[in-house]
């Protein structure tokens, strides 16, 4: 490449604005940076898992080939053994390297989690610049300085948050658990919503009141690693299913007897069934409905637990609410 072309390339890279001066340090900025670091580590883990699967298959294929070659005449047997040994060594070395890398990533994610927990516990009003700088230094020490050198608007985590978890064509509400798992709340009586059925994955769970008189709720656990069986996430989904139902005005005892319930300060118990995508009807008159007899389990939802949250989200999105509590 000529000197003039090299200079032009450098000018183009500089003009793209990939790296920008750091914005003022704040708690929100550092929290977002830590979320971005976590997301990037999760993507690396996914790539390593795929790579590991590839080399496991290669190793198995070579083992099978070695067994088949055991019938080769004795005058070539020694050469064949040496060749198999050389072939087997490479995949195993790759697997060992991948396992070592995965361990490093997991350890770094644990350190990152601890650091974020400490930062989240800091009082916003009494947070000194020296303290923020200390958290920033610890973050850089973990090896994430490159994140701070790039425009925060280009971070994957912020791009996702703009509409994270909302599929194309979905016109319902999107909530997020404390662990970052999206929860989709469908429109009332929209059982035949093709969008929800289309995007549901194996790890996702459906929630709805047992009499079907409420919105279908989809907990998108497939979008967050390791949270398929999170009780915290499932409870929030159950609470939302209870909130967006006719039963939100009632409570139920252990015998499922219904009673009028108007006190928002006390806990409500509304039976919610949940199942995976395999138990949602795909054809017939009941298409899109959950099968009560094939449910995975039952939980009790409390609409009061998410009352304030739902009102804020509905107001922000100007959502036309079918079920709305009387003030």
Distinct helical segment count: 9
Give, in order, the helices and strands.
HHHHHHEEHEEHEEEEH
Cross-sheet strand order for the largest sheet:
1-2-4-3-7-8
Tell me the count of domains. Answer: 2
Mean pLDDT: 76
Strand tally: 8
Largest sheet: 6 strands, antiparallel
The CA-CA distance between the termini, in Å, is 71 Å
Proportion in β-strands: 5-15%
Helix percentage: 40-55%
Report the structural category: alpha+beta
Task: Flag low-confidence runs.
Answer: 4-19, 320-327
Keywords: Coiled coil
Written overview of the protein:
- With 327 residues, the protein is of the alpha+beta class.
- It folds into two domains: 138 residues, no CATH class; 154 residues, no CATH class.
- 47% of the residues lie in helices and 10% in strands.
- The protein has nine helices and eight strands.
- Strands 1-2-4-3-7-8 form a six-stranded antiparallel sheet.
- A hairpin with a 7-residue loop joins β3 and β4.
- It is flat, with a radius of gyration of 27 Å.
- The C terminus is likely disordered.
